[in-house]
Amino acid sequence: MSAPSAPNTALSGSTAGPEALEPLVRAVLAALADGAARRGGPVPAGPPDALAEHVAGEYAAARGEGALSRLTSLLAYGSADPADPLCAAHLHCPPLAVAVAADLAVSALNPSQDSWDQAPAATTLETLLLGEMAELVGYDERAAGVLTSGGTESNLMGLMLARDRVVGRASGRQVELAGVPRRGPRLRVFTSAAAHFSVQRAAALLGLGEDAVVPVAVDRDLRMDPDALAEALDRCADDGGLPVAVVATAGTTDTGVIDPLRACAELAAEHGAWLHVDAAYGGGALLSDRLAPLLDGLALADSVSLDWHKLGWQPVAAGVFLVRRAETYASLARRAVYLNPPDDEEAGYPSLLGLSLRTTRRADAFSIAVTLRTLGREGLGRLVDACHDLARAGAEAVRSHPRLELCSEPELTAFLFRYLPARGPYDPVRTDRINAALRRGLLREGRAVVGRTELPGTGPGRVRLKLTLLNPHATPADVERLLHAVAEAGRAEEAAEEAAGRHTGETGEETP
């Protein structure tokens, strides 16, 4: 006797799945268009509390068969749209339609990568894709890797394997079993002062402590200074410490600069440290003949993180973690008799369980594989170059604008700048305040999404605006329009200050 049918309980797989999905996908597409039209720009206008109230009301009202369309329209209306040329704040890419279509197939079939019998084809596809990724990095057939949720997970894996290998070698114990030794040399991780915060987070999770991370000085371009790294490593050795890892960055979050990878590799090897390269952003340069030379030395790294949901135009998540030598993965190997019994593997049924920190895991490799096969490295490289050209044009537009100041040249597709107030002498406190406020004003009006960061150091005068250009279909005219919107918002903030009767003196203190 078959189970009783119920509305809206159709399944997405098997031969009947596509028929059940078709009207729902059409409804989603219509709702996406409706929501985007109602939004009418890169981000919904209004303050956060008003949007939250609207979302709560729509969520409460959505019921039954209409819930899918109503909530999809709400999501589209209430999203920051990275496909809009005026949405350029973060490493938040507009995914390619072909990648999203491939991702739909993954969602419909729902393979899980923790055992072969849940993902027969996807297991092989991920292995093949990782082989191509390793070759792109410059690794040979001895490499290994896995798909991750992004750079944070990949950086954690890199430091975990560094801890297990380097501390294990120094202590003569299996760190993954016995834990980090309570006595012995102080363990240290070296990374630039401009590196991603996930390095400190990983050190905390791994029992090393955030204080184990030694920030290395950067040069004026915010690139790790190899002389400063050499001094820090020598000082660690003189103090009886153990350098566990050097984490170099290929594409910092704020400016996209790339640390001197070859020099970092030589210094790490000299001191017996693991070299991990966080190329979550800059790894996309490997697709471009023009930019790939910037990653000279990447193949010397013991491990690498790449994110194709940045300069790869994939839906989240599309992180890749690679190691140069598969045997360094040994401490992560796990045997679960219900997932990867040894006799299954001996009989030719492979498992990816021992390559990941996760058990249940989506087949995120599929959309990358489809995209790579559809466009090829050359096609993706043209998209990378288009975004690089866009950033260079944007930097030039900032240079030529009387009220904007360029603070970093684009090495990849991002640059920093700020608005300089027209009225009064330069005041760093006031300048910071106006730049922070103009960005929020643009968000509140739904006009633009611009990034905000601060330069390393202390004291006022460090706030900067940021454009991260990942839309290959945007034009220099679009970027110029965005920059003019920034300047207009800056002038509006100055006028609002003047209308409120505020001004600032040389000390930066507000005076009524």
Summarize the structure.
This protein is of the alpha/beta class.
Write up this protein.
The protein has 512 residues and is α/β, with parallel strands linked by helices. It is 42% helix and 12% strand. The chain contains 14 helices and 13 strands. The protein has helices spanning 17-39, 48-61, 67-77, 97-109, 120-137, 151-171, 175-178, 198-205, 226-238, 261-270, 342-346, 365-399, 428-444, 476-499, and strands spanning 144-148, 187-192, 213-216, 242-249, 274-279, 303-307, 319-323, 404-406, 414-419, 451-454, 463-468, 503-504, 510-511. The protein has a seven-stranded mixed β-sheet with strand order 1-7-6-5-4-2-3, with helices on both faces. A four-stranded antiparallel β-sheet has the order 8-9-11-10. Strands 12-13 form a two-stranded antiparallel ribbon. Helix 1 crosses helix 3 (67-77), helix 4 packs antiparallel against helix 12 (365-399) and helix 6 (151-171) packs across helix 8. It is globular and about 75 Å long. Mean pLDDT is 94; it is low at 504-512.
